[in-house]
């Protein structure tokens, strides 16, 4: 599917407000409502738009700790990657799992209600996971910028 300037503007508007009405979206991107809806349905059908979700205030939900956790694995056993991802992917504290380059194999984005809960997660679950060789945590002290991803810096001009 072609991502022309109008499609990019549609995507940018949806990232700012996923609940925008089709009429308001059409006005923002200078299309008729029917043309806008056709483009939106095409973006959904092509798989560029994977879905819609609410952004939550984790602090108000009781999340006090958020961290990026680097995990290095022993790679001497068959199936170590699939086994690790299957196990860790089931844990509710793990919000995201990334395969990365560098000294570690993975970076996990982890949330916990308290330092005690985070410590329990690291010591009693992650550290005891088969094949884990090294764990390094980077605690998030303050979020300075957090935007939805996906447009690869291709922000369209506003009309």
TrEMBL record:
GO molecular function: sequence-specific DNA binding
Name assigned to this protein: AsnC family transcriptional regulator
Domain of life of the native organism: Bacteria
Record-level GO BP terms: regulation of DNA-templated transcription; response to amino acid
Domain HTH asnC-type: 3-64
Single GO cellular component term: cytosol
CDD domains the UniProt entry points to: HTH_ARSR
Alphabetical list of InterPro entries matching this protein: ArsR-like_HTH, AsnC-type_HTH_dom, Dimeric_a/b-barrel, Tscrpt_reg_AsnC-like, Tscrpt_reg_AsnC/Lrp_C, Tscrpt_reg_HTH_AsnC-type_CS, WH-like_DNA-bd_sf, WH_DNA-bd_sf
Keyword entries, A-Z: DNA-binding, Transcription, Transcription regulation
SUPFAM superfamilies in the record: Dimeric alpha+beta barrel, Winged helix' DNA-binding domain
Entry keyword annotation includes Amino-acid biosynthesis: no
